[in-house]
User: Fold this.
Amino acid sequence: MPVDNVGTCFACGKKNPHGLQLDVKETPGGVEFEFEPPQKFEGWQGIIHGGIVATMLDELCAWACTARGFDAVTGELSVRYRQPMKVGHRVKGTGRLAAVRGRLLLAESRLTDENGNIIAEARGKMMKA
Assistant:
């Protein structure tokens, strides 16, 4: 299955005015981004919607695969929420490819607050595209 990044992805696409427009960068251990979530992604007052949090974690898993030379799509994503993500507070996201098992890629991602406290983390079973 071909996957093409044409810039309209909800999570990272710079051509998507309604999306997150995450700026994911490669690191020696995987990928990362910093992001200050705006109110437009709010669920409960002052708290970013859990689906948006999951989207960020999923994006980190996908980019972690890409950084290692694999185009991949998500087969399964398991998310553990530890504390709310607050509107307007800077977060850091990190992701890494943990294992390659044939067509299956196992990725991990994490979001932390400004003090390094874990907001949420995920394990992704990614399929090579």
